[in-house]
Write a structure and sequence with these properties.
- This protein has 424 residues and is α+β, with helices and mostly antiparallel strands.
- The chain has 2 domains: 244 residues, Bira Bifunctional Protein, Domain 2 (BirA Bifunctional Protein, domain 2), CATH 3.30.930.10; 93 residues, Rossmann fold (3-Layer(aba) Sandwich), CATH 3.40.50.800.
- 39% of the residues lie in helices and 20% in strands.
- It is built from 17 helices and 16 strands.
- The strands form 3 sheets. The protein has an 8-stranded mixed sheet. It has a 5-stranded mixed sheet with strand order 13-12-14-15-16, with helices on both faces.
- The longest helix is centred in the middle third of the chain and has 18 residues.
- The chain starts with 15 loop residues before the first helix and ends with a helix.
- The structure holds histidyl-adenosine monophosphate.
Length: 424
């Protein structure tokens, strides 16, 4: 049997209502802050990711699905959305004015799969271009808080940090290289390899044996330039003014090279090692790096798979879980009535576009059709048998309450159902 690729999951019908609830809630929230949807290709030139995420990051070094196209181009499945958004904004000249954009869709990273970490996973991302101040950083954070609230999620914790500008980071980097080089023999292989290429990432290492050494490393606070410091202070003031609790984590560097100044993550303790449900930050240099006018930019991406795991635990979801159940189940007395059955079903759908009506297909006994109707979760069964057809009638039977059954004229059925489902 051919199975799905490792780390790439089917999302089955019992889970899709939850996904749909997350998607529609995110759309409502993003629109309410004036963000507009952009749809981006899933394949891009490999160089786009190399030059934005960074050649020495884990993502580019070992996690991208890269292949050579028939014409020799190197293409990659997108591991994230920011690079593509920047490319699109530049290509279509959208960066001359303030832009608030969002996207949703699959991303691909060849990581070791485990709970909350997959090779195909889904993100909802927002990217805001052309706004340099901490006000927009705060807006993005407030927006995510609104989404958590709408979804009934509690217990997420916000961490923020400032990475300063490229110049201050260079000085910091230089000192980190010296510090870690002096103790190279204490580092693991991964971190030793990073001393020159990406020493900031050593600070991110989860290896317990390195924690003491990492604790002793220079912290970025001492290097931060005045402008970044002011930006960060103002951001904190705005957050406090809006009752957003946060922790400043000086070790929060994030795994992508394009960040400067603000970075943030929303974390949960409920998903084991994969605690980040949303990550983002400022990338003021990236548009210029790709040849555009200097354009400040900031954004975030939410890991939808992780959020879904959390949502499964929240009580609100009983409703979402039942979201696919039909309202009506139509039972048909035999092959001769298929034509009439479909016509009746269509007339109901015409009158009630929101109704979910499942027609039983196949000539099964009434008994087994009723069993199916019951199992489907439908509230009402409709029955079309010989007697009904001969008199232009249809039988309506409640399945969840014991109110017997009534027979109504087929021509009155839609009106009758409209009363029964007044709330639809
Ligand atoms: P990121 O931190 O790499 O940032 O990913 C954002 C979120 O995607 C993570 O917090 C996590 O919830 C989810 N995620 C990442 N990898 C996986 C995986 N293998 N399986 C499941 N979920 C995963 C970015 O991607 C940036 N583009 C965010 C951004 C937008 N920064 C500025 N604008």
């Amino acid at each position: 049997m051919i199975k799905a690729v490792r780390g790439m999951n089917d999302i089955l019908p019992d889970k899709t209502p939850l996904w749909q609830r997350l998607e529609s809630s995110a759309r409502v929230v993003l629109l309410s802050y004036g963000y507009e949807e952009i749809r981006l290709p899933i394949l891009e030139q490999t160089a786009l990711f190399e030059r934005s995420i960074g050649e020495t990051t884990d993502i580019v070094e070992k996690e991208m699905y890269t292949f050579t196209d028939r014409n020799g181009d190197s293409l990659s499945l997108r591991p994230e959305g920011t690079a593509g958004a920047v490319r699109a904004v530049l290509q279509h000249n959208l960066h001359n004015q303030a832009q608030r954009l969002w996207y949703m869709g699959p991303m691909f990273r060849r990581e070791r799969p485990q709970k909350g970490r997959y090779r195909q996973f889904y993100q909802i991302g927002a990217e805001a271009f052309g706004m340099p101040g901490p006000d927009i950083d705060a807006e993005l954070i407030v927006l995510t808080r609104r989404l958590w609230r709408l979804l009934g999620l509690r217990g997420l914790r916000l961490e923020i940090n400032s990475l300063g500008t490229a110049t201050t980071r260079a000085q910091f980097r230089h000192d980190l290289v010296s510090y870690f080089s002096a103790s190279a023999e204490k580092l693991d292989e991964d971190s030793r390899r990073r001393i020159q290429s990406n020493p900031l990432r050593i600070l991110d290492s989860k290896n317990p044996e390195l924690q003491e050494l990492i604790q002793g490393a220079p912290t970025f606070e001492r290097y931060v330039d005045q402008e970044s410091e002011q930006h960060f202070r103002q951001l904190r003031e705005i957050l406090e003014h809006n009752d957003i609790e946060y922790d400043v984590n000086p070790r929060l560097v994030r795994g992508l090279d394009y960040y400067g100044k603000t970075v943030f993550e929303w974390l949960t303790t409920e998903l084991g090692a994969q605690g980040a449900v949303c990550g983002g930050g400022r990338y003021d240099g990236l548009v210029e790096h790709f040849g555009g006018e200097p354009t400040p930019a900031v954004g975030f991406a939410i890991g939808m798979d992780r959020l879904i795991e959390l949502l499964r635990e929240t009580p609100l979801n009983d409703m979402a879980r039942g979201g696919n159940e039909p309202h009506l189940y139509l039972i048909v007395g035999g092959a001769k009535y298929y034509g009439s059955a479909l016509r009746v079903a269509e007339s109901v759908r015409e009158a009630m576009p929101q109704i979910r009506l499942v027609t039983h297909c196949g000539s099964d006994s009434f008994k087994s059709q009723f069993k199916r109707a019951d199992k489907s979760g439908a509230r009402i069964a409709l029955l079309l048998g010989e007697d009904e057809i001969s008199q232009g009638l249809i039988t309506v039977k409640h399945l969840r309450i014991s109110s017997g059954q009534v027979t109504v004229a087929q021509s009155d059925l839609a009106a009758y159902l409209q009363k029964e489902f007044a709330s639809l």
